[in-house]
Design brief:
This protein is 43% helix and 15% strand. The chain has 336 residues and is an alpha/beta fold. It has a single domain, classed as Alpha-Beta Barrel (TIM Barrel). The chain has an 8-stranded parallel barrel, surrounded by 8 helices. Helix 7 links the parallel strand 6 and strand 7. Helix 9 crosses helix 11. The model has no long low-confidence stretch (mean pLDDT 94). It comes from Devosia psychrophila. Pfam families: Bac_luciferase (PF00296). One of its GO terms (molecular function) is oxidoreductase activity, acting on paired donors, with incorporation or reduction of molecular oxygen. This is Luciferase-like monooxygenase.
C-alpha cells in the first residue's frame, strides 16, 4: 500500500564498535545514496556533542557531503541546536548550502543543547540569551529586517542574493508548536524519544499557523524510531543494541554502539532496565507489516503530513536493509 504521508530519514551517524570513525562517516554517504534510490523524501542530520557513539556534531558538513552525492533527496538539519551558535554563522552556512544545492536544503532548528552540561560550557552555549532571541536574530539577518538603529543592521549576510532554505522548528513537548505556526514555518515533533502525545502540539501549530512563501499551508512531521527486519523476532533481537545503548547513556555511561550479541551480555542495573522498560514503548520494532501498521496508527492519530524514521543498528548493512524494507512495505516508488 502507498503511504498517505511522505516518508523521510534522520541519520545520527552512529559509530559502531569495531568500526573506525572515518568508516562511520563514509556510511553517511552510502545511506544518503540508498535513501535517494529508495525514493525517500528527505534526509536530516541531528547535532550532538560529546557522544562517542554519534558522529553528527556538524550537520552542515554532512549535509553538503550528502547533497553532493545525491540528486533528488532533500537534505537538512534535524536539527541545528541554535543556542550553540551565533545566528549570523548559521545564516551564512545555510545560505551557502542553499546556493550550492538550490531547492534541496532544509534548516531544522532545535532549542536543546545536543549534549551534556560540559559540552554546553565548551560550546559556550546560550550565553544567557533565550532561544526566541536567537531565532529572531536569525530571521532578521535573513530578511534584512533589523531596525536602522540596531548595530546588526550594518552587517551584510554573506553570501548575498540567497535566502535561507525552508525552516522547521523541532519540538518534543509542544511548547514551540504555536511559535512555529505564527512564524509560518514547518513543525517537527520528536516522538522517537518524547512521551508527550504529539497530537495536541500539532493542533496548536495548525491553529496558530500564518501562511508564508515557503509554507503556504501547515506542514507537520513526526519522527519515530524504527528497527525493521524480515521477522518480528529478528527485529527484536537486533534492537537490543539500541536498548542497551540508551540505558547506558541515560545512566552516565557512554561507549560506541554495541553489537546485539555484545549487548545481550551486558548485565544491567535495575535502573538501566527501568530506562529500557520506560523508553522501549516509543520504539517501533518488528517485521515490515508490524512496522507499517504501527506507523500508520501513530500517523493517523496525529494526522501528520510526513513521518521521519531514525534507525539505530550496529550493522550498517542491516540498517540500510531496514530502511529498504520500510520503503517497500509502504510502496514508495524507487528512483532507480
Amino acid at each position: 500500500m502507498a503511504a498517505p504521508f511522505a516518508l523521510s530519514l534522520q541519520d545520527l551517524a552512529p559509530i559502531a564498535e569495531g568500526t573506525s570513525t572515518p568508516q562511520a562517516m563514509q556510511e553517511t554517504i552510502l545511506l544518503a545514496q540508498e535513501a535517494d534510490r529508495l525514493g525517500y523524501t528527505r534526509l536530516w542530520y541531528a547535532e550532538h556533542h560529546g557522544m562517542p557513539s554519534i558522529a553528527s556534531s556538524v550537520p552542515e558538513i554532512l549535509i553538503g557531503s550528502a547533497a553532493a552525492h545525491t540528486k533528488n533527496l532533500r537534505i537538512g538539519s534535524g536539527g541545528v541546536m541554535l543556542l550553540n551558535h551565533a545566528p549570523l554563522r548559521i545564516a551564512e552556512a545555510y545560505r551557502t548550502l542553499e546556493g550550492l544545492f538550490p531547492g534541496r536544503i532544509d534548516l531544522g532548528l532545535g532549542r536543546a543543547p545536543g549534549g551534556d552540561g560540559y559540552a554546553m560550557r565548551a560550546l559556550r552555549s546560550g550565553g544567557g540569551e533565550e532561544f526566541s532571541t536567537y531565532l529572531a536574530e536569525l530571521m532578521a539577518f535573513d530578511e534584512d529586517s533589523f531596525p536602522p538603529e540596531h548595530p546588526y543592521s550594518r552587517v551584510p549576510v554573506s553570501p548575498g542574493g540567497i535566502r535561507l532554505p525552508p525552516m522547521w522548528l523541532l519540538g518534543s513537548s509542544g511548547a514551540s508548536a504555536s511559535a512555529a505556526g505564527q512564524l509560518g514555518i514547518g513543525y517537527a515533533f520528536a516522538a522517537h524519544f518524547s512521551h508527550t502525545p504529539p497530537a495536541p502540539a500539532f493542533e496548536a501549530y495548525r491553529y496558530a499557523f500564518q501562511a508564508t512563501g515557503a509554507f503556504p499551508k501547515p506542514q507537520t512531521m513526526m519522527c519515530v524510531s524504527v528497527v525493521c527486519a524480515p521477522t518480528d523476532e529478528e527485529a527484536k533481537y537486533l534492537s537490543y543494541s539500541q536498548a542497551v545503548q540508551w540505558a547506558l547513556f541515560m545512566t552516565g555511561e557512554q561507549r560506541r554502539l554495541m553489537s546485539p550479541e555484545g549487548a545481550h551480555k551486558v548485565v544491567l542495573t535495575p535502573q538501566q532496565q527501568g530506562v529500557i522498560d520506560h523508553q522501549s514503548s516509543l520504539w517501533i520494532v518488528g517485521s515490515p507489516e508490524t512496522v507499517r501498521d504501527t506507523i500508520l496508527a501513530k500517523a493517523e492519530a496525529s494526522d501528520v503530513d510526513e513521518v521521519m524514521i531514525t534507525t539505530t543498528l550496529h550493522s550498517y548493512g542491516l540498517r540500510r536493509r531496514s530502511y529498504g524494507l520500510v520503503a517497500k512495505v509502504f510502496g514508495i516508488e524507487p528512483r532507480g
